[in-house]
Write a structure and sequence with these properties.
The structure holds 4 protein chains of 4 kinds. Chain A is mainly alpha-helical. Chain A has 14 helices and no strands. Chain A has one domain (91-347). Chain D has a 5-stranded mixed sheet with strand order 1-2-5-4-3. In chain D, strands 6-7 form a two-stranded parallel sheet. The chains are: A mainly alpha, B alpha+beta, C alpha+beta, D alpha/beta. Chains C and D meet through α8, β6, β7, β8 and α12 of C and β3 and α3 of D.
């Protein structure tokens, strides 16, 4: 079987046969962007459904099962409902920022998707500072949340937004440092090279103890960065009602909601790429069929997504000061020492390679 | 040192918590505690003492057991029962006797306290087990319990 | 985690926020006027009356049998105990000799009510601190008790099973078996509550040292029930002024001396164990006999004043009836536990964060209709 | 302490106390409004009585008097006493607050103010608790009439 998944080049070559080079490049970019947008909007909706089903099973319920076979169309129906809903808002809101905020959030989370290597070829944009790009992009989302909370002219929203600012700024550090620990092994920020290094064994095995610590720190900080329970200070429905999106309705609310789930996917996908060998199959069992990489990538990502859901439906929420204590007194020092250990291990060549 | 033991203990308690939810996740298909209402209407059965609404049973001759003594009306705390009664000649004995014209029951006012049924000396009114009492129109909640043309069963005295 | 506030030259301004009457953490239509400085609570002022029905005034026009069903609607989570309180007041006033069977059944139902209330509280408490799954585990166990109630009394929540002079009718034949089944089931599930939530490190950090109420303050504020006992104040009416069959059973009063939210939490968990112990002592020994003492159709209390206190799931419920000898009471006052417990919210929440306020409020276990009688 | 001993002890403190055990299961003391606060603080602070738990505070409309009934219990000695205070002034009834002695009285007195219109001197925050500020009349008084909201049987 010879399916070419190198979509950017395929599309560009196909377009170039029809129009001049400059136009074709732009048209190819737009096409790829649209494909990604559609795929991940739908994927985000199904993540919502997955979350609801998983939550139901944790909670001895059945979950959505009415719309469509096995309830598969439930979130589609929800999205349709949200599209058709009236967009309400407060009178004294800062209209421009208020309307801008949801797009900030959704665009920044969709941008991050471009760099993931779903297979060797299925990667829209193999930038040479991949990890750096991801970290940079994922921290833009918080601006949208801050804008939304600030401009809503609602005190609950404002408290939520401020909490979000505090939280994301702190945990950004741990996400970055724990990924940096792994960069010590790979020696490259480019995602395709990180995957290449892992052909000798997934990084979580190569780096053994410090890698596992880095993974745990990453998962905690990543959960915090997506503002999900047990770190959902931003929404904290028993304290702030709905937090920063209290005043949003209809499609604008849907953007926030969808962004949360896409962010969760992104956090899991980064972990898959950096710790679990991206599209590489375990022991290379499907090396001859490279298109199966999509399956492996999504499989690993969904397992991590499930782990985050498991956290959410088990743990109580932290208080806002405990959240910062956890970051500054526990995760950060552990992380710094962990980098040192990792550096020593790499220096002494103690990594495990298969 | 307590710094590290805190971390260890903390992670341990988190994992034990996750084991509880994880166990239910795996067995949840058997143990769903929610009901698929209204799909299960046919199998959903209320307990025999369930207080759905007050009804007045009639037998095959369209006869009920209410003598119109108004004890239920007095017992009701919020005026859900109104009895419109009259006096007539009893055909069997030829004496003057009280009988009900209409036994009006306002389901919308009823708090299902059961005092009327306790008070009834002839067991003329009982609880029905139906549980779907909602209507689109409030006037439908006012019900006349005795059927048209019904009369009191012979031998029931107040 | 203790935090230290650093004095700085930044000008900070207190602001006002309106929590409720529609808010997920207030469990009903309670409105709290909060004055906040950043995240720190400066003042909590409850605004009540959103569902006040003036039950006390309604009682003045009702007969004594009719009062009972109104009390269902005060603290609806311990409706059976509320009913019992009114019935006991009337029975004591009439000096009726209540059969042992009635006393034992009332005690069993009362303890089942307490477990049902505490399981609901546990679920909702977990939800307030962010663990959403506890809600369903709590409700799963509560549903079994509600089924027992429904089979015997005919209603799940507002049971109105007591009448002055005994019970409305006898227990259902399945009652004993169902109760035993429930106890067996719940003994396996209650330890799970501990593994899921009590031991959890996040939960402990959230609860310990939060909302501290000293013993002196607890007495001064009239705290009762688990709130008082969490502060080391022995206030169990079942121990100090036993009613029904509580003088025949042995049980421990759950006491903690810390006075924080975690102590109140532990007291309630402990109380569920004690309630199960009480039920186990009684369920096999329900004496035979009548379930009613004949009373006049129109009950007239002798002239005088009558007071009866009982221990509901929330604390001490007092029923104060002034009678002038007619068929209606002259004045009825319900001393509800929630009302006194709410009054200390400002005292324990000030200085904490918004999250602490929610946790404190959850362990006060407020039922709003109980406050807005 | 038994009711007799209590009566004997308290009787010496303040003049014009009326004691009664009729028609009630507790010892009742009726006190003049001007002596109320003094008696209450004595009842709490005295080592032998130490009534530190005010478990019920109810307003009562005795017609024509308005009054308040205090149910007190001692958590150390476990004895109970009832204190009653009455005022004949229906237009502007004023009593002393006891919320500096028992803090629970703060809410209970607000409730009494709300429903009976009895004002309490020195109360820190005396305003309507359940009803709106613009509500007219005091619903739990016997002469209160509201043709719209009250259903009279």
């Amino acid at each position: 079987m010879n399916i070419s998944l190198n979509i950017t080049e395929t599309i560009q070559e196909w377009l170039m046969s029809m129009m001049p080079e400059g136009v074709a490049s732009i048209a190819a970019m737009v096409t790829v962007a649209l494909i990604y947008l559609i795929i991940f909007a739908v994927a985000g909706l199904y993540l919502v459904l997955l979350e609801r089903r998983v939550a139901a099973w944790f909670q001895l319920r059945i979950g959505p099962n009415r719309v469509g076979p096995l309830g598969l169309l439930q979130t589609m129906a929800d999205a349709l409902k949200l599209v058709s809903k009236e967009l309400t808002g407060t009178i004294k809101a800062d209209k421009f920022l208020y309307n801008l905020a949801p797009y900030f959030v959704i665009v920044s989370s969709l941008m991050a998707l471009a760099v993931f290597p779903f297979t060797k070829e299925f990667q829209a944009f193999d930038i040479n500072i991949g990890i750096f790009f991801l970290i940079a992009i994922s921290s833009i989302g918080v601006i949208g949340i801050l804008l939304g909370g600030w401009s809503s002219n609602n005190k609950f929203a404002l408290i939520g937004a401020m909490r979000s600012g505090v939280q994301t700024i702190s945990y950004e550090l741990s996400v970055g440092l724990s990924l940096l620990t792994m960069i010590v092994i790979t020696g490259s920020l480019q995602l395709s090279e990180i995957v290449e290094v892992q052909k000798q064994g997934w990084l979580i095995l190569q780096g053994h103890v410090p890698a596992i610590i880095a993974f745990m720190v990453y998962m905690i900080a990543g959960t915090a960065e997506t503002n999900r329970a047990p770190f959902d200070m931003v929404e904290a429905e028993s304290e702030l009602g709905a937090g920063f999106h209290t005043e949003y309705s209809g499609m604008k609310f849907a953007y926030f909601f969808l962004a949360e789930f896409i962010n969760m996917f992104i956090i899991a996908a980064i972990a898959t790429t950096v710790f679990f060998g991206a599209w590489l199959s375990p022991f290379g069992i499907t090396e001859s069929l490279p298109w199966l990489g999509v399956f492996w990538f999504l499989g690993k990502t969904l397992i991590l997504v499930f782990l985050m859901m498991w956290f959410r439906w088990t743990f109580p929420r932290l208080r806002v000061d405990q959240l910062l204590t956890l970051e500054w007194k526990y995760l950060l020092p552990i992380n710094l020492i962990n980098i040192l250990i990792m550096a020593i291990i790499v220096w002494l060549n103690l990594t495990i390679k298969f | 040192m307590s710094y590290f033991s805190d971390i260890y203990k903390g992670i341990k308690t988190l994992l034990t918590g996750m084991s509880v939810t994880g166990k239910y996740f795996l067995t949840s298909r058997k143990g769903a505690i929610t009901q698929q209402y209204p799909d299960n209407r046919d199998t959903l059965k209320m307990f025999e003492r369930f207080r759905g609404e007050v009804v007045m049973p009639h037998d095959e001759n369209n006869e009920h057991q209410c003598t119109g003594c108004q004890k239920c009306e007095l017992a009701c705390p919020n005026g859900s029962i109104e009895i419109i009664w009259d006096r007539g000649i009893d055909e069997a004995t030829g004496k003057k006797k009280k009988f009900i014209d209409r036994h009006i029951y306002h389901l919308g006012l009823c708090t299902m306290c059961g005092l009327c049924i306790e008070a009834c000396p002839t067991d003329a009114i009982v609880w029905a087990q139906n549980y779907e009492n909602s209507t689109y129109d409030r006037t439908q909640l006012t019900k006349v319990l005795n059927r048209p043309g019904s009369k009191v069963k012979a031998g029931i005295e107040d | 985690m203790e935090t230290t506030l650093i004095k700085s030259n930044f000008k900070s301004e207190e602001y006002f926020i309106n929590m409720g009457p529609q808010h997920p953490a207030t469990h009903g239509v309670l409105r709290l006027l909060l004055t906040i400085d950043g995240e720190i609570i400066k003042k909590v002022e409850p605004d009540l009356g959103y569902i006040h029905r003036s039950i006390e005034k309604m009682c003045e026009r009702d007969s004594y049998q009719q009062i009972v069903h109104l009390t269902d609607r005060m603290d609806y989570l311990s409706s059976h105990i509320n009913n019992e309180a009114v019935c006991l007041t009337v029975e004591n006033a009439l000096q009726l000799d209540i059969p042992d069977r009635v006393k034992v059944i009332r005690t069993i139902l009362g303890e089942l009510t307490r477990i049902a209330s505490h399981t609901l509280w546990w679920g909702v408490m977990g939800m307030d601190v962010g663990a959403l799954t506890t809600y369903f585990y709590g409700f799963r166990d509560r549903e079994m008790i509600n089924d027992i109630f429904e089979e015997t009394c005919g209603a799940r929540l507002t049971m109105n099973y007591n009448i002055p002079g005994g019970l409305m009718f006898d227990i259902h034949p399945n009652f004993v078996q169902r109760t035993k089944d429930f106890i067996k089931h719940f003994k396996t599930k209650l330890p799970e509550y501990d593994t899921l939530l009590t031991g959890n490190v996040i939960f402990q950090k959230r609860m310990k040292g939060v909302g501290i109420l000293s013993k002196e303050d607890a007495i001064s504020f009239g705290a009762s029930g688990p709130v008082g006992r969490g502060s080391g104040y022995s206030c169990d009416v079942r121990k100090h002024h036993p009613y029904s069959a509580y003088d025949k059973v042995t049980f421990n009063e759950a006491l903690k001396t810390e006075g924080d939210t975690f102590a109140r939490y532990q007291v309630r968990i402990q109380e569920m164990w004690e309630s199960m112990a009480i039920i186990e002592q009684l369920i096999d020994n329900i004496p035979e006999g009548d379930v009613q003492v004949a009373t006049n159709a129109v009950i007239k209390l002798p002239k005088g004043e009558f007071y009866q206190k009982v221990e509901t799931a929330r604390g001490e419920l007092g029923v104060y009836i002034i009678s002038t000898g007619t068929k209606n009471p002259y004045r009825v006052k319900f001393r509800s536990p929630g009302f006194s417990n709410l009054s200390l919210l400002n005292h324990i929440a000030v200085g904490g964060k918004i999250g602490d306020l929610v946790a404190s409020m959850a362990t006060l276990d407020l039922v709003i209709p109980d406050i807005d009688r | 302490m038994t009711n007799e001993a209590l009566q004997k002890l308290i009787n010496d403190w303040i003049p014009d106390l009326e004691f009664s055990e009729e028609e009630s299961q507790f010892l009742n003391i009726t006190v003049k409004p001007e002596n109320l606060h003094q008696l209450m603080s004595d009842l709490k602070s005295n080592k032998e009585t130490s009534f530190d738990y005010l478990f019920c505070l109810s307003g009562v409309d005795w017609q024509p008097e308005l009054g308040v009934v205090y149910h007190l219990e001692s958590t150390t000695h476990r004895h109970i006493i009832v204190v009653k205070v009455k005022t004949t002034d229906r237009e502007n009834p004023v009593l002393d607050t006891v919320c500096d002695i028992w803090r629970t009285a703060e809410f209970h007195e607000r409730e009494v103010f709300d429903f009976f219109g009895i004002k309490f001197n020195n109360h820190p925050n005396l305003k309507r608790l359940f009803l709106t500020d613009e509500w007219e009349g005091f619903p739990l008084r016997k002469d209160y009439e509201d043709e719209i909201n009250m259903v009279i049987k």
